[in-house]
């Protein structure tokens, strides 16, 4: 088990905070450089030191549900307002998924049915997994982030780890979120995602919410959030009040708002879960969306690190909703 102790986490988080501040204040992106790098093999979106690749998962919905059967030419990709080519394109719903489950094990999760609901969520993910899918399991509590199980296709190992969960310690939700770029990019498959399971309470983070979200844009995968609790709002506490875990966030940065924004900005989705019986439909919807993703990928050129805005348009008749990551941190498109 890989364990990140608080003494190691805090210097790393402070460095991430400084990086995020610099990225937010960075200048406009540079023009693409020539010559263009070679194309990656189809379906292989691995990063290298010389030619990093940006992966953009895209979900397209119409009035009747997910829109399938689209081709590469149906999509247009823009970075900072400029259209760019994407040499790689994946559209097969049977493509396996690399999934990281980031589970909150802090003391607040020991209240009510939250750990029971969490076990049900992971159990549902395992029950619905396809043969080539892989999953990693990480937990956070007490100021530490633990990679309990690296990527594996062993259902038995994952279930054994889940059986040992106990709630303890403080909650550093924003700090854990900032580690997503580090723990979520080791998967083998082009369809990758993080599933964050938490009640949204935070009483110990070094990072501010905005800084954590700026850092998580480094991740090249969407974050799906299963929010356990009483629903959007202040998690049962008044704005700026004090709950059992310490000071509670103001209404503008409350439980539901923070988790929703995290999912939105990374191209994922937020699933509020108030009762254990709502777990099954939430997990079913989450996995269905992952299977229906289109994956666009493009290389970046050497250049200044900057937060770059991403937009995807779909050129098909009718009204559709397009969900995708909002940006990435890195060099300009090649």
Describe this structure in words.
The chain is α+β, with helices and mostly antiparallel strands. The protein has 2 domains: 53-93 and 293-330, no CATH class; 94-290, Rossmann fold (3-Layer(aba) Sandwich), CATH 3.40.50. Helices cover 25% and strands 29% of the residues. The chain is built from 8 helices and 18 strands. The protein has helices at residues 6-24, 114-127, 155-163, 173-178, 180-183, 209-216, 255-266, 279-291; strands at 2-4, 53-62, 65-66, 75-79, 82-84, 88-90, 97-104, 134-141, 144-152, 191-198, 223-228, 242-243, 246-247, 270-273, 294-299, 306-314, 321-324, 327-330. Strands 1-9-8-7-10-11-14 form a 7-stranded mixed beta sheet. Strands 2, 3, 6, 15 and 17 form a 5-stranded antiparallel beta sheet that branches. A 4-stranded antiparallel beta sheet has the order 5-4-16-18. Helix 6 (209-216) links the parallel strand 10 (191-198) and strand 11 (223-228). The longest helix has 19 residues, at 6-24. The relative contact order is 0.23. Mean pLDDT is 74; it is low at 2-51 and 230-253.
């Amino acid at each position: 088990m890989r364990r990140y102790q608080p003494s190691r986490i805090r210097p790393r988080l402070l460095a991430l905070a400084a990086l995020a501040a610099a990225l937010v204040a960075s200048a406009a992106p540079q023009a693409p450089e020539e010559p263009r790098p070679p194309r990656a093999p189809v379906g292989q979106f691995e990063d290298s030191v010389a030619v990093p690749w940006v992966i953009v998962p895209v979900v397209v919905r119409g009035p009747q549900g997910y829109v399938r059967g689209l081709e590469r030419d149906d999509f247009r990709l823009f970075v900072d307002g400029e259209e760019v080519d994407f040499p790689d394109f994946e559209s097969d719903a049977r493509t396996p998924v690399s999934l990281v489950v980031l589970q909150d094990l802090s003391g607040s999760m020991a209240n009510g049915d939250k750990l029971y609901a969490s076990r049900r969520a992971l159990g549902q993910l395992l029950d619905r997994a396809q043969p080539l899918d892989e999953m990693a399991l990480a937990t956070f509590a007490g100021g530490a982030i633990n990679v309990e199980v690296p990527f594996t296709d062993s259902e038995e190992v994952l279930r054994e780890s889940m059986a040992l969960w106990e709630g303890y310690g403080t909650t550093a939700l924003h700090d854990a979120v900032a580690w997503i770029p580090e723990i979520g990019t080791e998967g083998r498959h082009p369809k990758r995602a993080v599933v964050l399971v938490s009640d949204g309470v935070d009483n110990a983070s070094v990072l501010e919410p905005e800084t954590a979200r700026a850092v998580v844009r480094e991740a090249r995968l969407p974050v799906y959030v299963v929010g356990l609790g009483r629903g959007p709002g202040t998690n049962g506490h008044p704005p700026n009040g004090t709950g059992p875990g310490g000071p509670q966030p103001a209404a503008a940065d409350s439980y539901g708002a923070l988790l929703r924004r995290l999912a939105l900005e990374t191209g994922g989705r937020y699933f509020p879960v108030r009762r254990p019986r709502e777990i099954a439909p939430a997990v079913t919807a989450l996995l269905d969306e992952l299977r229906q993703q289109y994956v666009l990928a493009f290389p970046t050129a050497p250049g200044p690190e900057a937060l770059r805005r991403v937009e995807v348009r779909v050129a098909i008749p009718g009204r559709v909703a397009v969900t995708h990551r909002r940006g990435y941190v890195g060099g300009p498109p090649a």
